[in-house]
Amino acid sequence: MPQTLPQALLLQARTRGAAIALRYKRLGIWHTRSWSELADEVAQLAAALHQRNFGPDDNVLIISQARHEALLLALAAQWLGGSVTLLDPERDNRALLAELRPRFVLAQDLDALQQLDERQVVLYLDGRGLNQHLDDGLIAYADLIATTPPPACATQWGRTAFVFYADTPLRLNHDQLLAGARALVEREHLSADEEALAARVFAASGQARYLLAPWLHAGFRLNFPEALATRDTDRRELGPTLVLGTRESYGRLELWVRERLPMPGTFSHRLYHWALQPSRWAVRRWLGHWLVRRPLRDVLGMSRLRVPLLVGPPLTPESAAFFGALGIRPRAWQEPQHHTTSDHLLSQSARRALHARTH
């Protein structure tokens, strides 16, 4: 049984090597990677990090939206026994970054890069606007190559895999993530045939616990939208069977639908309400499904949805009723409640600042 996330990847590569593991969209075109291709890419990235003196006690800090490159670099760092800190690029992280003083950073774009004061090994994904910074020793993700093979994949199951920052740091170990993945796969009856969409920001522990780790354990397909702005269109194209969301993300979809409903008093508006009302009559339920509920699920990109997951606070009663009428009832999985500091990631001043905020 795999002890770490990279070991789970290697197991999928050995058992299901040619199967599609990951899809991502660029310039409107979907690209695919098989499990064996992913394992090879992660191994090459691990070798490149190793050549740059990344070791088991090091951490890669990633400031990025959900991008497949960020995921592969995270697995490469964990391959070497290191950990990964994930920050939301939409937030102002400058104060925290000044305390952490990371040695290895992956920045999504210029905005993320400008949050950094001190830096040593900095990779970037999107080079637009970086011309004046390219003399600062920045490395394009695509140029992160190695001339030697990677060391053996680390096997320490109790080591930190991810660190997240909210009020206090939250550290998740490999064993926690894989145990949680096994529990979710068993409870939700997940299989390798699932299609999942990675549309949430990476800097959320629920993404690691209820999407990334189950993906590696169950071997289903993980899909990355082109951008946050295209996630709804991309979801409609894919028709995922597994969706992970929060109260806010489900509420956003509900609002999007409600804003496009027919005007009150029209026949279409009356039909909408008639179709969503519960009924004991089979014919009415059948008509309501094909005339309203099924088209609405198609518009939401949820026509094939089998496993709707909810992380964090429950849906509002209005949202629960709305999605329930469509036959969508998200199952709640809670974020972890225990928060622990990872001392080797924090400077002395950062620990003092965190202590002051929590006491």
Brief digest:
This protein is of the alpha/beta class and 359 residues long.
Q: Which percent range describes the beta-strand content? A: 15-25%
Overall average pLDDT: 85
Strand order of the largest sheet: 7-6-5-3-4-8-9
As residue ranges, the low-confidence spans are: 338-359
Indicate how many domains the architecture comprises: 2
Q: What is the class of the largest domain in the CATH system?
A: Alpha Beta
Main sheet specs = 7 strands, mixed
- Oligomer kind: single chain
CATH fold-level topology of the largest domain: Rossmann fold
Radius of gyration based on Cα positions: 22 Å
Question: What is the helix fraction of residues, given as a range?
Answer: 40-55%
Termini Cα gap? 41 Å
Tell me how many strands there are: 14
Decide which structural class fits the backbone.
alpha/beta
Give the count of helical stretches: 13
Q: How do the SSEs run, as a string of H and E?
A: HEEHEHEHEHEEEEHEHEHEHHHEHEH
Find the CATH superfamily of the largest domain: ANL, N-terminal domain
Shape: globular
Tell me the CATH architecture of the largest domain.
Answer: 3-Layer(aba) Sandwich
